[in-house]
């Protein structure tokens, strides 16, 4: 029963976060009109959340490892729901932006805990199936978001999409309280506030800089200063972590080749996928003039095949091992992005749908393999921090992909000149190149899944040598 509760809490929590992001996109035009907000203010409803959640994911995972993931899950989901209720009652756009930042803080507490619960309730050799269920759940939420959001906004107004989060949050919290975890083996180390603050600052500045690239370009003063600040902050963080008695990212985690390879794989593959969705949306709606429903139907096979591909990837993972499945997934994503580069500018429904289906299968293989590796390769005592790293990659990767796509779309175009469908081809090819980089970390994954006992023993030996 407790194992089932852990799976339900993990999947429902992840779906709630995924659905919230999709619903917000549908609510923004109505929100802007009712609150008399500027476009910049409306954009900050997304940017503020993204910066907050990306900055705190790893720190939240570390706190969960120390104080308990069930506590973090319940606190995160209830705080997320309370912030949603506040947004539904917000009188001005300033309140909405501020509460979205608060929502991001609680979202950061929630997301690593959803992965950690799976690691604590399932042995590593049995993680592939619950990870596949979680991946399929995220795909379902992403597919249902546009339909559900459209109905809610049309019938009840933009505030209703935030009201929806409240009962869902209460239900997830109730299920989370029913989870019974094994006795936790707390690490006898102090929390490092200096490292946590540095990491949060570096990630926040880096994400904020990337989010601004479509508007400012890679050579804009704000982008250059933000990039320099991020590099300097990262160098300071590395120097601090080397000296710290309890680094925010434990040395055993940083030294794990499977974990670091899986994080890198997720980063570049998510960048390719979400950058491609950004380009496809621009091409199908802004250039070819399709309405949102027609454009959504063109790319719907991506979500459908992602949902169907998750359990198939789980089966393949058991038979062929992480390296082969991940490399195959990266190859499929790369080929699909190259195919979109040819077909998306013309808007061919069958061709675009077919390549999106291929993209969904490939991304499902990458997600299931990389997530299972990240969470399964760590012992229970580090489940939160590796979950935070995984979620950070899934937040930063799309930001990188969109920044690359936007810069290529606008390259060489005089100011004020409308974008053309032809500009989508080089942008999608650039994203295919980004995704192809994932072959390197994919080939660094293990050929087979190790058993739970050998994994724990390996980490203990590593801990004794580097801690």
From TrEMBL:
InterPro entries: MFS (IPR011701), MFS_dom (IPR020846), MFS_trans_sf (IPR036259). GO terms for molecular function: transmembrane transporter activity. GO terms for cellular component: plasma membrane. It holds the Pfam family MFS_1. Keywords: Membrane, Transmembrane, Transmembrane helix. PANTHER family: EXPORT PROTEIN, MAJOR FACILITATOR SUPERFAMILY MULTIDRUG TRANSPORTER MFSC. This is MFS transporter. It comes from Actinocatenispora comari.
């Amino acid at each position: 029963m407790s194992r089932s509760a852990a799976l339900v809490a993990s999947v429902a929590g992840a779906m709630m976060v995924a659905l919230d992001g999709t619903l917000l996109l549908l609510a923004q035009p109505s929100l802007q009109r009712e609150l008399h907000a500027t476009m910049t203010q409306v954009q900050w409803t997304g940017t503020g959340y993204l910066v907050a959640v990306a900055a705190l994911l790893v720190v939240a995972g570390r706190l969960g490892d120390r104080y308990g993931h069930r506590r973090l899950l319940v606190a995160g989901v209830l705080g997320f729901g309370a912030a949603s209720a506040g947004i539904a009652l917000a009188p001005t756009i300033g309140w909405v932006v501020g509460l979205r930042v608060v929502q991001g803080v609680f979202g950061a507490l929630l997301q690593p805990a959803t992965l950690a619960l799976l690691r604590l309730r399932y042995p590593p050799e049995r993680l592939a199936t619950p990870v596949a269920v979680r991946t399929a759940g995220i795909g379902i939420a992403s597919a249902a978001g546009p339909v559900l959001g459209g109905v809610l906004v049309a019938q009840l107004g933009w505030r209703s999409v935030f009201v929806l989060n409240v009962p869902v949050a209460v239900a997830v919290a109730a299920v989370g309280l029913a989870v019974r975890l094994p006795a936790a083996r707390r690490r006898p180390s102090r929390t490092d506030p200096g490292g946590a603050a540095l990491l949060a600052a570096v990630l926040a500045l880096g994400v904020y800089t990337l989010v601004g690239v479509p508007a400012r370009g890679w050579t804009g003063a704000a982008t250059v200063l933000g990039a320099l600040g991020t590099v300097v902050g990262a160098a300071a963080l590395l120097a601090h972590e080397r000296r710290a008695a309890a680094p925010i990212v434990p040395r055993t985690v940083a030294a794990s080749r499977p974990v670091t390879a899986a994080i890198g794989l997720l980063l570049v593959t998510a960048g390719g996928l979400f950058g491609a969705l950004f380009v496809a949306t621009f091409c199908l709606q802004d250039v070819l003039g399709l309405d949102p429903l027609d454009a959504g139907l063109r790319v719907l096979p991506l979500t459908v095949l992602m949902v169907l591909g998750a359990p198939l990837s789980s089966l393949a993972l058991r038979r062929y091992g992480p390296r082969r499945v991940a490399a195959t997934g990266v190859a499929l994503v790369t080929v699909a992005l190259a195919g979109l580069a040819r077909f998306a500018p013309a808007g061919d429904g069958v061709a675009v749908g077919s390549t999106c289906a291929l993209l969904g299968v490939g991304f499902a293989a990458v997600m299931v393999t990389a997530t299972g590796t990240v969470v399964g390769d760590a012992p229970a005592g580090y489940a939160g921090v590796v979950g935070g790293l995984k979620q950070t990659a899934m937040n930063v990767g799309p930001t990188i992909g969109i920044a690359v796509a936007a810069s290529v779309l606008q390259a060489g175009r005089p100011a004020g000149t409308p974008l053309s469908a032809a500009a989508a081809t080089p942008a999608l090819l650039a994203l295919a190149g980004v995704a192809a980089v994932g072959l390197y970390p994919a080939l660094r994954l293990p050929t087979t899944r190790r058993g739970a006992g050998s994994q724990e023993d390996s980490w203990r030996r590593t801990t004794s040598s580097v801690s």
